[in-house]
Amino acid sequence: MTVHPILAALRRHKAGVSLIVLQIALTLAIVCNAVFIIGQRIERLNRPTGIDESNLIKISQAWVGAPSGDDAASIEKLDALQRTDLDTLRSLPDVKEVAASESLPLSGIIWSSDISLSPEDKGLTAQSAYYYGDEHLRSTLGLHLIAGRDFNAGDILHHTIRSTDVSPVIIVAKPVADKLFPQGDALGKTVYLDGKKPSTIVGIVEQLQTPTTASWGNPFAYNSVLLPVRLDGTSASYAIRTRPGREQAVMHEARKALLAVNPMRIMPDAWGIQSFSDIRAKAYRADRGMAILMGTVCLILLGVTAAGIVGLTSFWVGQRHRQIGVRRALGARRIDILHYFQIENLMIAGIGVVLGVLLAVGLNLWLMAHYEMARIPLFYMTAAVLAMLALGQAAVFVPARRASNVPPVVATRAA
Amino acid sequence: MHMFGYYLELAMRSLKRSPGLTTLMVLAIGFGVAASMTTYSVFRAVSGDPIPWKSSKLFVPQIDMWGPGQHGGDREPPDALDYADAMALMRDHRATRQSAIYLISPSVIPAGAGRSPVQANGYGVYGEFFPMLDVPFQYGSGWSADDDAHQSAVAVISDKLNQQVFGGGNNVGRTIDIEGKDYRVAGVLADWNPQPIFYDVMDTGGYSSDGPDVFLPFQRAIAVNMTNSGVNECRDSPAEPGFVGLQHSNCVWIAFMAELDGAGALQRYRQYLDDYARDQQAAGRFTWSPNNRLRDLPAYLDHMHVVPGDTKVSLLVALGLLIVCLVNTVGLLLAKFLRRSGEIGVRRALGASRSAIYAQFLTEAGVIGVGGGVLGLLLTGVGVLGVDLVLPIRLAGLARIDPALLLLTVLIAVVATLLAGIYPTFRASRVQPAWQLKSN
Question: Is this model's pTM higher than 0.95 or not?
């Protein structure tokens, strides 16, 4: 089949053809960017935290009327309150392990600072998030120790978040070790937290995401440091590892037990006791929402464009009813008529996708300039182009088949 | 006018003749408009001016106490103030009204035995905070400058906290237990939670469905060692421990707002900030020349990016969808109108003018627009309810349906469809009567 008669016919429908081309181009540009946004969000959602997320609970609570922690005596009082809570939680059935744990990945509460090789905070530094906790922290979170040792009870300090004390030993996540010691010999080395007193790296864990998912945290998303400190304050947080499937039961029991020990505490439903799956759902709610929204828009777009192609092609089929009859009478087979409309659509969609790819790149560049957006990989572009061509073919099939069913006898009838 | 009725009848008849095409066009317009209006409802909610009658008089001073390149690498000073600078600005008091502001989360014990304590989020502020921001009171009022100076144990509480602690009613003058100490209730707020939370963007990111529950005099809260529960950013970690250490450091954690009336006052305040920074330079505290900002509220909210990027991108993508839907409608209307070339030819031959053809076909487009608008109304309703489920929690409940949104939905649907109908109508009006009559 030659394309010449198709081109000739298309030239007679310049407006209609241009509109479909435009529609396909715009659809491709928007869908391509929207699907890329969806892909990025899904990638974010699937990032590992580095911890074992199942059967993990976080408790955050504040004591009412507790001392402020501004002198040594009141710090001891606060620490006693915390140790009582930890013992209470450890004694619960179905609890495997409990750790004092200020923050967790995805929880949003972050203390971060630069870790440096020299006391003056000059030269090589690694911005890192601090995870404060006791000797149970690493094992409760299920972090994988790849070198060195865990904290032991003797390492654990206790002070307030606004203390100037610095822990002499720390455990770092591998990205921190690799950044500061590219030779791979971080274990046993000395680093400086906040550029002041030295700390020795006694252990390295494989992976631990920082507590924030905000974009400003992206440059150091896996730079985490474990500090052997039970943080004292009017509020305290704990991480609990439960026996498999006992999360809900432990959440219930923990609330009862803690209130029995000391009812003068604030532990609201909204953030007092949460399973890690709740924390994960909250942290990524906006990303999931954006993906759903983009997905919905894409579906509507593709539906509208497909329907538009069906509509316009049907109109052309109706208009060319008699010509189709003539072609059939002159010997064209049904398959020829079907192919005619399919090729016609392929040509229109082909122009549309070429234009669409240009628009998609333009839109992508614009979004990159104004919002947090990466360059669309070639894979997405190719997939979108193929999808648009396939959509065109699917949409054209019904009216094209109707055209192929036009009997040759039509040619003999008056118009 | 009677011709309009006739065109309406023609339009209905024509639309009924091709129900598939008609449905398609109505669906496209409906979905396109609904997607745009749903995302617009979110955008409208987050980009609004929280205090439109006064925002041009409210200013946020920023002072560079860290030096060049210390705050994210650009020349922008930090987004908040440290204690020393905030207190200096309060002491000098060069604005009509002003307040330093910091986030606190004290525990409050409800009246009556055996009630569980609640955590109240609120702020340490100065007395001028309330008149400056036109904060509405249900009972009582804020406190005086005297109360600020004497660190009086007074509190302003929200209606919600008033319910929780006292069970509601006028409790001005009664005592409330905040963080183990007694405070006299000076005022009970009426419902007040403007979004974005313009007086504390740094801690809230701009939005929170829970409004502040309690306000205490700033210096009182400092005196009783009520630590700040919001963000603090430090260039160097504090040299001393505790909340006092934070106050003695150049960490930033205090929001500040000043009311300035007129260009002269603004100019004088700018000058004052520069003089202040120069004094600090002379004293050796700053080793760089003054680098201050004094943005009015809308500019500050823009600077802090309170409108989430996702919201803008969503709106943009939805507008793109609407455009595609309109292009689609142009194509379908073109097909539909030109299919009736014979009818147009007859009408023209019988004396109908081109403008009559215009009126007839634009009426038809308008009818489709109204249909799309009605469908769009329903879908926008569903969309606004549904979008709440996918928005970040801090934005939940902000998108609302109101008469303005509904009116806009129908208006956009009709106007857009009429615009889409212009070219097809133009083509229809160019149909040559003689040619059509001959060929049929």
Answer: no
